[in-house]
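Notebook, bench 3.
Goal today: get a predicted structure for Hexosyltransferase from Xenopus laevis so we can plan the truncation constructs. The sequence was checked against the plasmid map this morning, with no discrepancies at the termini. Length recorded as 410 residues. Pasting the sequence as submitted so the record is complete.
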Amino acid sequence: MLEISVPFHCKLKTMVRCRKFFVSITAILTLVGLKIYFDIMDELPIFSELPPTPSEPLRNPLLILEPLQGQEDVSMDTLHDMANKLRRLLVTSDSYWNTNEQHLLDSKDTRAWTCKTPKEPLKDLATYPEPLQLFLQHGGCREYHLIIDQPDKCSHNRTFLLLAIKSSPQNFAQRQAVRSSWGTERSYGGLYVRLVFLLGVAPGQDLSSLIWYENGQSHDLLQWDFLDTFFNLTLKDQLFLGWARLRCPEARYILKGDDDVFVRTSEIVQELTLLGGHQNQALYMGHVVSSAKPFRDPRSKYYIPHSYYAGSYPPYAGGGGYVFSGALTPWLYLVAHFVTPFPIDDVYTGMCFMALGMKPTGHPGFRTFEIPVRQKYPCCSKKHLLLVHKKNPQEILQMWNKLRDHVQHS
C-alpha cells in the first residue's frame, strides 16, 4: 500500500480551514432556517385564548360614567362596551357560564339577572351538588321582597364608611359581638360610620320573631325573603347594591365583610382619609387573590364543574372583607346586567369590577385567610393589620378589649 507522507504543519493548516468551513456552513444554515421560520410565522394567524389587553387599564371608570347619570340608554350602552373586558376570561369552551357570557357580550339587547328561566338548561345539572343546582335554577333573579328595611340609615348624607356585614339569620351572637366592638356606630373626628347586617331567610327554620325583636333593639338589619345559603351570597351582594344605591347614595366608602371578621375601624377610617388620586374616588381594596382557578374536587365547598365554568378567575379581593368607593355602587349594580351570575360571591365581585375596568388594590393590612395560631390576637401587636377573618364572638370581644387596653396604655 502506497503511503504519502504529509508534513505536520500542512495537516494543521488543513484542519483549521475545515473547521472554519464547517462553522461558516452551520451559521448559513441557521440563518436560512430562521428566515424560513419567520416567513411562516408571518403568514400564520396567532391563536390565543385571551385577546390583547390595553397597556394601561382604565383606572377610574367614574370619569366616563358619572357624566352619563340620568341617561339610561347611553349608560347601558357604555357599560356594555366596558364589560367587553370580560372577554379576557372567555377561554374557548362550551361551558355553561362561558357560553352565556359570550352571548351577553355579543348582544346589547341581552341582560343577566332577568328572572327568566334559561332556554338551554345544563344537560348534566342532576350530577351537580344540590346547592349549585339551586343556584342555577334560581340564581338569575335579584327581585326579592325586602322584609326589614333601614330607610333612614344614611340620613343627612353624612356617612363616610358604611359597614355592610353578611350574616346568616341564626348568627345572633356574631352580630352582637360586632355591634359591641368594632361595628359600633359613631363618629371618628366628624366622619360617621354606619352599620347594616345583610340577611336572607334561614332554611328550615322560622326565626322571624327573634329577628324582628333583634332589629327592634338594634335597627341595623336588612333582610330579604330568599334562602340564606352559601351559594346565594352573590344574590345577597346584588340585593345590597340595589338597596345602597337608593338608601345610601352618598356613602363615601363601603366595607363589605363577614360577621366573623375583626376590624380596626378607626385605622381604616384614617387610611381612607389619606387616599389620593384616582383611589380617592374609585377604590377596590383588600386581600387580593390573583391567578386563582376553580376547585374541581366535588367534595369542596367551592366546587365548580368544568362543564359550568372553564378558565381562571379574575383578580379579586377576598370576600371576608374589602373596601370600595360608594360612588361605584350604582355602576356595579348596573354592569351586572352584562356579567353572568356566578355562585362564588367574591369571584363575581371581581368580575364586575373587571367589567368596569378596575383591578383590586392589595393592602397588607387585610387578612381574609387564616393566620398562624401563634399570632392569636395580631390586631394589637401588628399595627399594620386592619382586618382579620375567622373569629368567633368570644375572640372578637377579647381582641376588642385587648385593643382598647393597648390604646389606653400606648
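The radius of gyration is 29 Å. Confidence is low (pLDDT under 50) at residues 1-16, 30-58, 377-381.
Flagging this for group meeting.
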